[in-house]
Write a structure and sequence with these properties.
This protein is an alpha+beta fold and 151 residues long. It has helices spanning 2-7, 49-58, 122-128, 138-146; strands at residues 12-19, 28-36, 39-47, 60-62, 66-68, 72-83, 86-98, 104-107, 111-115.
Length: 151
């Protein structure tokens, strides 16, 4: 999944197990993000704690990638904002933790993500939020810091 993401190949996907301990949401989720020529899609399904723990230890069998086992955790603080039907999230205190080794790497930056509907006027959006657009993946950054040790 890392290589496909770096190369920008389609179709590709990211599979993740997610919890949101910083919120009142006590659910566990199985999320699949798919990038294809038709667009980007995300599924998010609530799973019970037993299934969550099973997937964490045994992995998830995927038709494209085979048996996928968790290799890292991303832990961060997230703040949400909303303005004119635009959602903004800011991730701070980002830590990447290796699943199998006792390694922790900190990301000293913050990530700001802007999301809106496809109906939003792109010129108006870039006028309201004049940021440089860039591609960024906490997952890819974590793989590079923990597994490939590029930093």
């Amino acid at each position: 999944m890392y290589n496909d993401s770096i190369e920008g190949l389609t179709p590709r996907k990211k599979i993740r197990l997610r919890t949101c301990p910083e919120t009142k949401d006590l659910n566990q989720y199985l999320e699949v993000k798919i990038s294809s020529v038709e667009g980007r899609f995300k599924s998010r399904n609530i799973i019970n704690k037993d299934k969550f723990n099973f997937f964490k230890t045994k992995g998830i069998l995927d038709s494209q990638y085979g048996l996928c086992k968790p290799c890292l955790y991303e832990v961060y603080d997230r703040e949400y904002f909303k303005k004119n039907n635009v959602r903004i999230s800011i991730d701070n205190n980002i830590n990447y933790i290796s699943q199998h080794k006792n390694i922790l790497q900190k990301d000293h930056g913050s990530i700001v993500e802007i999301k809106t509907t496809v109906k939003k006027d792109l010129d108006k959006l870039t006028s309201d939020f004049p940021f440089e657009k860039m591609r960024y993946s906490k997952y890819c950054n974590a793989v590079e810091k923990l597994i490939l040790k590029k930093y």
